[in-house]
Amino acid sequence: MTAESMSWRDYYELCKPNVVLLMLLTSVIGMFMAVPGMVPLDVLILGNLGIALCAGSAAAVNHLVDQRIDIQMARTHNRPIAQGRVKTKNAAVFAAILGGLGMAILLLWINALTAWLTLASLLGYAVVYTLFLKRATPQNIVIGGIAGAAPPLLGWTAVTGEINGHALLLVLIIFVWTPPHFWALAIHRRDEYAKVDIPMLPVTHGISYTKFHTLLYTILLFVVTLLPFATGMSGVLYLLGAVCLGAGFIYWAIVLMRGNNPKAPMATFAYSIIYLMALFIVMLLDHYLIPAAYVYGGGV
Ligand code: HEM
Ligand SMILES: CC(C)=CCC/C(C)=C/CC/C(C)=C/COP(=O)(O)OP(=O)(O)O
Fold first, then answer.
1. What is the pLDDT of residue 291?
2. N or C, fewer C-beta in 10 Å, the chain?
3. Other C-beta atoms within 10 Å of 264: how many?
4. What does the function comment of this entry state (predicted)?
5. Which atom of ligand 2 is closest in space to residue 154's alpha carbon?
């Protein structure tokens, strides 16, 4: 592999591509949930491009700010800035270009509301969470989770230009999902966070306390995911999916809490990602398939 292709890979990695891809799935589905038919193609492409660039920019700032702690933790020590493969200044320029481009796209071709909400999420993650909360309180990821939870709202406002209760419900789902998603991993990596003095919940309050709160949030998540059905936003297919997926999450949170399976923390973390992906996909399927079934059923 040439040095040049290596460096592109490093810049790509700065954007946390897998995380941003899952966020994009939620913003795309936020767009589709906002309308009964097809999302205008320009909004679909430019809206998600703008959101992705801004999220990538925030992720690059996170790498930049965290380089000294990243190099000390096994999970993150090989990151591009921590290892000096990307210079701090270049990373800052890269983040500024991505953020500037993303904002320009949203302001020029989408709408001002989406642009400012996206900027708030960018700053919420890159500045409020990374620079302050992460180092200050074990509630860091709970509060910081608001930024990561925003994409379905950003997708929704990109299409409609308005904030809507149903869009906020999608944000609420990801907001409540974030603590079990992260704490499962943080339980596994507790000693590393302790080593770099980051006050994650398992460090400040212990593993058992964190496991219990992971279970509590998972139960709360189960309840919150019933709300799209209860409010008439989604139908029976979604309800079935939410109940099955939620039962699986609670199962893993219980296995985690019982503590006799050493693989439970990372299995719960992996499940959290599959869970969110599947929940949003089933919501989209419900949105299009169920009305279609009614139409065709009614027409026969
Ligand atoms: C404040 C909120 C969040 C925190 C603290 C958090 C924390 C983390 C951490 C530490 C990892 C790294 C695991 C590793 O390096 O192996 C991770 C991975 C991941 N997170 Fe989150 N996360 C948050 C929000 C989100 C959101 C909102 C999404 C998507 C909607 C998301 C999707 C993912 C995905 C897909 C991965 C796997 C990445 C990979 O395999 O490369 N996360 N998360
Ligand atoms: C515009 C918009 C939607 C912005 C959202 C930005 C974004 C990419 C949020 C990601 C959330 C995340 C992976 C947090 C982990 O950070 P960490 O520093 O705790 O984890 P780390 O140790 O792996 O870096």
1. 63
2. C
3. 22
4. Converts heme B (protoheme IX) to heme O by substitution of the vinyl group on carbon 2 of heme B porphyrin ring with a hydroxyethyl farnesyl side group.
5. 3
Burial profile 70-102: b = 16 or more Cβ within 10 angstroms, e = fewer: bbebeebeebbbbeebbeeebbeebbeebbebb
Q: How far is the CA of 243 from the centre of ligand 2 (A)?
A: 28
| pLDDT for residue 143 | 98
The CATH fold of domain 1-162:
Tetracycline Repressor; domain 2 (1.10.357)
pLDDT of residue 257: 98
- Rounded Cα distance between 17 and 207, Å, is 29
Distance 298 CA to ligand 2 centre (A): 46
Residue 149: CB partners within 8 Å, gap ≥ 6? 171, 172, 173, 174, 175, 177, 178
Q: Are 222 and 191 in contact (CB under 8 A)?
A: no
Name the residue ranges covered by the structural domains of the chain.
1-162, 164-300
Length reported for the chain: 300
**Per-residue pLDDT, 262:** 96
The model's pTM: 0.95
178 lines ligand 1 (CB under 6 A): yes
Q: Where are the beta strands (DSSP E) in 120-176?
A: none
Q: Give 19 Cα–ligand 1 centroid separation in angstroms.
A: 5
Can you say whether the dihedral through the CA atoms of 276, 79, 67, 7 is positive or negative?
Answer: negative
DSSP secondary structure code for residue 127 in this structure:
I
Rounded-to-5 percentages of helix, strand, coil across the chain = 80, 0, 20
Which residue puts its alpha carbon closest to atom 31 of ligand 1? 19
Please tell me the predicted confidence (pLDDT) of residue 290.
73
Identify the segments of the chain with pLDDT beneath 50: 1-4, 295-300
Angstrom distance (rounded) from CA 184 to CA 220: 16
Do 125 and 57 contact (CB within 8 A), yes or no? no
Query: What kind and span of H or E run contains 20?
Result: helix 17-34
**Tokens, residue 286:** 């419900």
